[in-house]
Amino acid sequence: RTSTRSTCVFFSQYLHQRCAHNMFGMWNVKDVESFVEEGSAQNQHLPTNTNTTRFESALDEAVERKRLTFFTDVPFFMPGMPCRLLAKYPEEARFLYVHRDRTEHFDSVLRMHCKWDAPINCLNANNKALRERSWGSYFHTFCDEHSKICGENPDDKVIKKNNLTSLMSSIWSAHLDEYEQSVRECIPTSKLLNISLGWYNETSETKRFQSFFGLPEENNDSLALRFSRLHINDDLMPGRRQRMFNNNNNSNESTS
Known about the structure:
With 256 residues, the protein is mainly alpha-helical. Helices cover 55% and strands 6% of the residues. The strands form two sheets. The protein has a two-stranded parallel ribbon. It has a two-stranded parallel ribbon with strand order 3-4.
């Protein structure tokens, strides 16, 4: 749910894995919910519908025919989705969960909502419902009240902080707590990599990433620069990235 586009590009370019970013972001919400709920029924040993949902059929096609192996963004962090995917792909599935400071994260989420959701997804009942299921119940309020939150020009990334945004942040954080708890309960540690945004700047975190995905070991600075150059969201830790690039440029100048 964070750093989705740049992580997807990283997997495509450097791991040679075909990645889908937001491929199902406008999928029929009822189909997605049916897919997720089917897994819940299986876990509780309840009678299940043997018919494949349209979402599951599309996912099968993406994996089997299009050879896509890595999926990010809506609806893949919808509550229940990771557990359902593990049930469907018990041997193959692995999960990358990128964490970041929650205050910083929600500020970024609001900027994203203002730029993409207010003018597009809030105006479509299905897309709005899919994002409410994925991001939390506050999303409905955002769509109704976005004029009180977003600047006149979304590209300016101006957010009007007020009591409304504070309330939304609390709802989102509670939603995130419940989601993370459910992931811990159903995904074994051997299948789940919890890592912090900025992992590529820390040698120990880089080694964990390399080990989890079976990457060959390489110079940490090289991997860091590769990933940072792919960051599409300029608000992702600009100070740290700038310091890293400055250090790299100084190093290159001293050796030239």
